[in-house]
Design a protein that fits this description.
Number of helices: 14
Radius of gyration: 26 Å
Oligomer: single chain
Strand content: under 5%
Length: about 425
């Protein structure tokens, strides 16, 4: 049996496996210390978050500064789930968040079908309907979850402790991503109709709101374990190179397959010309929502992985100044380039958080925020399209079908000249 595939596919997976093995060997053998291990993990996490933003901004053309807010939501949701299991030895966070996320998702599906039948519903009315449904579904999810806490806790306790911890961690990462996606869908209903600059300002406001809520999470929201502005501690350090690499590969595959599908081409067409896309029958709002929600999903997953690297979260990590980091990475690698975004994320982590911290004299570490922008300025003067521009490795690049040769009609042979029948007599 002959395995199907081309040179680009086998080359991509060969290099990917090699990178994973080398990274795992460096970490497992202690060739890199904890500092550089953390830098590598943060680079992978930022690659996931920035790939989501590249889908929103680079491919869909929506200038968004809200990626950091969804990143923060994912981090705190996952951290609260694993904290309750690791410190309080119960699955309350896991069960309640699962029920809330599930019921909100079902509610959105039901309201979406209802809205499709009702013609002429304005944006604010739809937002009010979705908001009311979200509140009802959340209350119902909390009530149902309280009943299921003890059975689920008993089931997980019967497993080996390390296995149970990994299961809780994996589910918490997925739930954090879905939760961020659902919030982005609700938030996107009224703001996705805004023009590019106004949309960017609205998403920046969302990031600021999330940061303020996290500052008061222990008093205003009632999550005392988050400790508000003091920072959340006691989070299990379960994020490993394996988990970061796995979710990074999944993100790349999802985006690659999306962009090579009809939906992906519709998303890109909205970026190129909304009027022309609408004239061709493309639902502009639907494609913008698809890109925004999927990009926020990856931000939530990245935040969940980040929360379990150092075992500590602080709201200042998610302030609006830091919200520009994914944007810088996307521009550094190249708008519309998945390859450039991954490279830019690791370069950002290694240079800003790694090399400059080590090279600069003690006490001058903050000067890296001066050196790094200067490097970006020089790069933008020399390479305005980013380091990779529109380049993609063959596996991630759009594969166009071969040109279909038009059937050549047989050219009729010229008729033989009729013999002369003239009278020669």
């Amino acid at each position: 049996m002959r395995l199907k595939g081309n040179r680009g596919t086998w080359g991509f997976w060969g290099v990917a496996i090699l990178i994973f093995v080398v990274g795992q060997l460096l970490i497992s053998t202690g060739a890199v210390n904890d500092f550089w291990k953390t830098i590598i993990l943060i680079g992978g996490v930022m690659a996931i978050v920035s790939l989501g933003l590249n889908l929103i901004y680079g491919f869909s053309g929506q200038f968004s500064l809200g990626q950091w807010g969804f990143y923060a939501l994912g981090a705190y949701v996952a951290a609260d789930i694993t904290y309750r299991w690791y410190q309080l030895h119960n699955a309350s966070g896991l069960v309640v968040v699962f029920m809330v996320v599930t019921l909100i998702g079902l509610c959105y599906l039901g309201i979406g079908r209802l809205s499709a039948r009702l013609q002429g519903m304005d944006t604010l009315s739809a937002f009010a309907l979705y908001l009311a449904g979200t509140i009802v579904a959340a209350v119902a999810g909390v009530a149902i979850g309280q009943v299921l806490i003890d059975p689920v806790t008993a089931l997980l306790t019967a497993l080996p402790p390390d296995l149970a911890m990994q299961i809780v961690f994996l589910i918490s990462v997925l739930l954090a991503g879905v939760f961020a996606a659902e919030i982005s869908y609700l938030f996107g209903l009224p703001v996705l109709a805004l023009a590019s600059d106004y949309f960017g300002i609205a998403t920046l406001g969302f990031t600021i709101i999330v940061k303020v809520l996290l500052d008061n999470s222990d008093t205003l929201l009632g999550f005392t374990e988050m400790k508000g502005a003091r920072g959340m501690v006691g989070i299990p350090k379960t994020t490993t190179w394996f988990w970061v690499f796995l979710f990074l590969m999944i993100t790349l595959l999802v985006l690659r397959n999306l962009l090579q599908s009809s939906h992906g081409r519709a998303v890109v067409s909205v970026r190129e010309d909304e009027i022309a896309a609408k004239a061709m029958g493309i639902n502009i709002a639907s494609q913008k929502t698809l890109a925004f929600v999927l990009g926020s999903l990856f931000a939530g997953i990245g935040g969940a992985l980040y929360a379990h690297i150092n075992g500590f979260l602080h709201p200042n990590t998610f302030n609006f100044i830091k919200s520009f980091d994914p944007m810088i990475i996307v521009v550094l690698g190249g708008l519309g380039s998945l390859t450039g975004t991954v490279f830019g994320a690791f370069a950002w982590a290694l240079i800003l958080e790694g090399v400059l911290r080590v090279v600069l004299p003690q006490g001058f570490e903050t000067w890296r925020f001066v050196v790094y922008p200067l490097l970006l300025l020089v790069m933008m003067l020399l390479r305005p399209a980013g380091l990779f521009g529109g380049f993609e490795v063959p596996f991630l690049r759009q594969v166009l079908p071969p040109l279909r040769k038009s059937a050549e009609k047989p050219t009729p042979e010229p008729a033989a000249a009729a013999p002369e029948t003239g009278d020669h007599s």
